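From the shared-data thread, chain only:
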Amino acid sequence: MKQANALRVAAVQLSSSDDPRRNARVAGDLVSRAAAAGARLVVLPEKWNYMHAASRMADGAEDLDGPSLGAARSWARRFGIAIAAGSVVERVPGEARAYNTSVLIQPDGRVTATYRKIHLFDVEVGGTVYRESDGALPGGEAVLGRTLGRTIGMSVCYDLRFPELYRVYAAAGAEIITVPAAFTAHTGRDHWEPLLRARAIENQAFVIAAGQVGVHPDGTRSHGRSMIIDPWGVVLARAPDAETVVFADCDFDRLEEVRATLPALDHRRPDVYEKAARRDSGSDAPA
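Structure, as tokens:
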């Protein structure tokens, strides 16, 4: 039985290609399944509309009123649901590079929050070099959205490794954290679930992580295993290795219980942390 103070949510998992029409067709089918199962908030993965190498991001770039988000807005209106539209490649006028952008869409189709990925994935792992900054510009703002009476902290993929961002969201009242992603198969095997559960536990919030899965046109492989996690760190839903959608009921009475019985957020000492950050890191002298 669904709890009275609960919200059914869904995470869509895709294996996106460089064909936006194909990607939108599959995503639309999975959003329809989610809505039919009673989901009121649906999260799409990173770059759900277009996946290719960073150097070709511009090939899939669209304006925020372009066809991909136009489709997502139409799904929201048709089914009367909110959609965290993963991320899309957002065209930037006058720039060769694009933003990696997530938007929050209300059930009436309005976009009410826009988050541009802050941390870009410039690393070498598993013998593969990733240079997201070759095709992307970094965002510069943490963004909270609000829908269906709930406050949502927005992020994208590599942001997951930077707990400072999520603590800002928790301090500002976030109850849900969205993590659309295309985590690599190499790092995802060991890091994806521990990082997601840590963000849920330390911020006492629900985490909805919608991932890419499988091999993409540039030969990279995404980990998948999309998850929905509760504020205690319990995995409520986990996707298999396929294009699919998973569901869970986020019980906000449980969230309040966790925060009341283990009030770690109230026990924070930002005054002490700020003093430590101001200390001269080059000095060995005692403070």
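The mean pLDDT is 94.
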